[in-house]
Amino acid sequence: VQLQASGGGLVQPGESLTLSCAASGTLFSSRPVGWYRQAPGKERALVAAMYANRDIAYADSVKGRFTISRDIAKNTLYLRMNSLTPEDTAVYFCRLTVRATDYWGPGTQVTVSS
Length: 114
What we know:
Elements: E1 2-6, E2 9-11, E3 17-24, E4 33-38, E5 45-50, E6 56-58, E7 66-71, E8 76-81, E9 90-98, E10 101-104, E11 108-112
Parallel strand pairs: 2-11
Antiparallel strand pairs: 1-3, 3-8, 4-5, 4-9, 5-6, 7-8, 9-10, 9-11
């Protein structure tokens, strides 16, 4: 199983980005997935998660601004990020859980700065 995240970049405060996470070697299907981020000097933290029962959870800091979704046909996970702030600056990782094993992508850098 390999995951590859993309879509990161440098944006100004208030702008939007959409991150993508493509999977190979397995299918996202309805498996548990999530987006995490790690800012400099901080631990990796959950941003958004989509569970097998289709429940979705967001970190309080991104509620109302970020949206997690998946396209089963494209076998891709997305994170739409709106109204970005400098506090959203981090490396973003996608995660897929298959039979209780977590797989991680290598991360994509998001920098929000004026």
